[in-house]
Structures are given as structure tokens and as C-alpha cells.
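About this split. The held-out portion is used to measure sequence recovery: a designer receives only the C-alpha cells and must propose an amino acid at every position. Recovery is the fraction of positions where the proposal matches the reference. Here is one held-out target exactly as it appears in the evaluation file.
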């Protein structure tokens, strides 16, 4: 014969199970729609082949994207060179990136009118300044204030 406490426990367990069955069968239509959505989402995520292929694919995709982002963000060595040359009017400079002409400046940038560099040292200073801007991924334009800071002679 069972003790009363055990019988009460079994009865309460049975009543909880019955309540669960009743509450499951008496669900509202919104709950049923929610269950259908959960089942659809599960089938979409898992698919007909089970969960393993999907998660293997997602892991491979994540690792691939992280590897590509690391490779693309890795800084590349800058192969930037500048050359100052004489023109019929004065001096000019050229900037090459990977041996391709990127900037050719015949006149003094940043000032109105057509003014040429008076000497090669001024052209070289501006050339180095623009190279530094390119390396630092800044706009390679030169303002009048920057020319004044570099002490570039604008009048020959």
C-alpha cells in the first residue's frame, strides 16, 4: 500500500499533465499561427538534410568572410615615388603609384592663376607633401595656407 504523500504527488503530477494536454489542445488561433511560423522557420534553418549541413555551411561562410576581411584590411606597402623635372616655364613634379602616373602638376596648386614653381626645391617640398597626403589617405589637394606653411615662393 502506498503512503498518502506519494499518492498526492502522483495525482498532482497527473493533473499537471492533463492541464498541459488541455492547454495544448485548446490553443488560440494566434498561438497556432505562431507555432506554424516557428515550424516554417525551423524547416528553413534546418532544411531537408538536417541541421549539420546548414551549420557547417554557415561556419565555413563565417570563416571565409573573416579571412577575406582580414586580407583586404591588411596594409599594403606603398610604392609611391615623386620626380621633379624642369619645364619651359619653371619646374613641375610627377607622382607615381606602382610605377603609374597618378599626379602631374605643372603649376603651383592651391592658388588662382597660372604660376609655375620658381625652383626645384619648392616643387620637391610640395611633391613630398602631396605624397604624404596620399599615403595617409587624405585628399591630395593643396591649399594656400598649406603653401604658406611650406614656405613656397609663389612669385618669381
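Reference sequence for scoring:
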Amino acid at each position: 500500500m502506498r503512503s498518502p504523500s506519494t499518492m498526492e504527488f502522483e495525482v498532482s503530477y497527473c493533473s499537471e499533465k492533463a492541464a498541459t494536454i488541455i492547454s495544448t489542445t485548446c490553443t488560440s488561433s494566434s498561438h497556432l499561427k505562431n507555432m506554424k511560423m516557428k515550424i516554417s522557420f525551423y524547416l528553413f534553418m534546418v532544411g531537408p538534410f538536417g541541421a549539420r549541413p546548414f551549420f557547417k555551411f554557415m561556419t565555413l561562410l563565417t570563416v571565409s568572410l573573416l579571412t577575406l576581411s582580414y586580407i583586404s584590411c591588411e596594409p599594403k606597402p606603398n610604392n609611391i615615388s615623386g620626380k621633379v623635372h624642369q619645364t619651359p616655364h619653371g619646374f613641375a613634379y610627377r607622382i607615381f603609384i606602382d610605377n603609374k602616373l597618378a599626379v602631374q602638376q605643372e603649376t603651383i596648386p592651391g592658388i588662382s592663376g597660372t604660376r609655375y614653381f620658381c625652383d626645384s626645391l619648392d616643387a620637391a617640398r610640395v611633391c613630398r607633401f602631396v605624397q604624404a597626403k596620399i599615403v595617409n589617405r587624405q585628399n591630395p589637394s593643396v591649399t594656400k595656407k598649406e603653401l604658406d606653411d611650406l614656405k613656397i615662393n609663389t612669385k618669381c
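Annotator remark: The chain is about 55% helix and 15% strand.
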